[in-house]
Amino acid sequence: xxxLVDQLNxxxxxxxSTKPRLFxxxxxxxxxxxxxxxxxxxxxxxxxxxxxxxxxxxxxxLEKLAYFQADLYKKxxxxxxxxxxxxxxxxxxxxxSSHVVVICMERQKSEQILEIEEIEAVACSVQxxxxxxxxxxxxxFWGSGGVTYTExxxxxxxxxxKDKCLGYLYLGYSDNPTTKSxxxxxxxxxxWFAENI
Length: 197
Prior knowledge:
alpha+beta
């Protein structure tokens, strides 16, 4: 197997998050979505628990999710903090996506593996998805605001008591994708320990 290291490095460096409001509504072929999900399934995970669970919304499913979250925001928000423009965005921005993958973690029944390790495994799985999407020149955005961590969303998604929703992965095409980002040097974030010989 030949691994094209330079291409992999470039893919990782060029991947960007593009907000769904910049999507153009063009639909992604479902076969590509299945390939994105297949690559998600090969993330590292402690004990092979494979805790990632994905709920995929597209077509009329997007409307169902959009109206659910907008209505829930209105229900849960005190009148003095309610923002009509946010409510409207919750109904419309999601509909610009081709597919929305709701990111969930199924808690191991025995709870032998620490919950944080299960969450980390799901995050690795999402990274596989966003890199695969980037390889197909598909824009992605992992969002976790709004109603993500509510019990009402868990019930809507049919999650178990100890399962978690970790956000939405918005997928779509854009005429104006995000191309710029910044990172401070990795050397500022690393302590290197080695024995002196």
